[in-house]
Amino acid sequence: MHHGPAVELGVDNASKKKAKLGVRFFFLYLFFYAGFVAIGVLNYELLSKEVIAGLNLALFYGIGLILFAVILGILYNNFCSRYEDELNKEEKS
After folding, report:
1. Which of 18, 50, 66, 75 has its CA at a distance of 20 to 30 angstroms from the CA of residue 56?
2. Closest by alpha carbon to 58, among 43, 36, 78?
3. Burial 37-56 (b: 16+ CB within 10 A, else e)
4. pLDDT at residue number 42
5. Chain center to CA of 86
6. What's the half-sphere exposure (Cβ side, CA atoms, 13 Å) at 86?
7. pTM of the model
8. Which among 20, 21, 8 has a CA at the least distance from the CA of 72?
């Protein structure tokens, strides 16, 4: 009834590059998130100001953070796939 894994697990030659990219993306996102928190702590009245199309800064910035996280996730996946393809191709050659 039981079957083996769907894929063979092996050495990940790209793990160091992927980890470094993940840390860079984390700190990039942290920078923008810290800006949001800093505004909320230091000048919370600013978050109620209307920015675009009736949206206040808090909502606009919050939606922007969510979209930025999704974009970073897509970029991370794309770069990691490239790293794996490049480094695993070199091993097979």
Report:
1. 75
2. 36
3. eebeeeeeeebeeeeeeeee
4. 96
5. 21
6. 10
7. 0.80
8. 21
The token duo for 66 is: 């969510």
Reported residue count of the chain is 93
Residue 85 tokens, joined: 């393809």
Residues 60/51, Cβ–Cβ less than 8 Å: yes
SS3 of 68, please? Answer: helix
| Token digits of residue 35 | 């800006």
pLDDT tens profile 22-47: 999 999 999 999 999 999 999 999 99
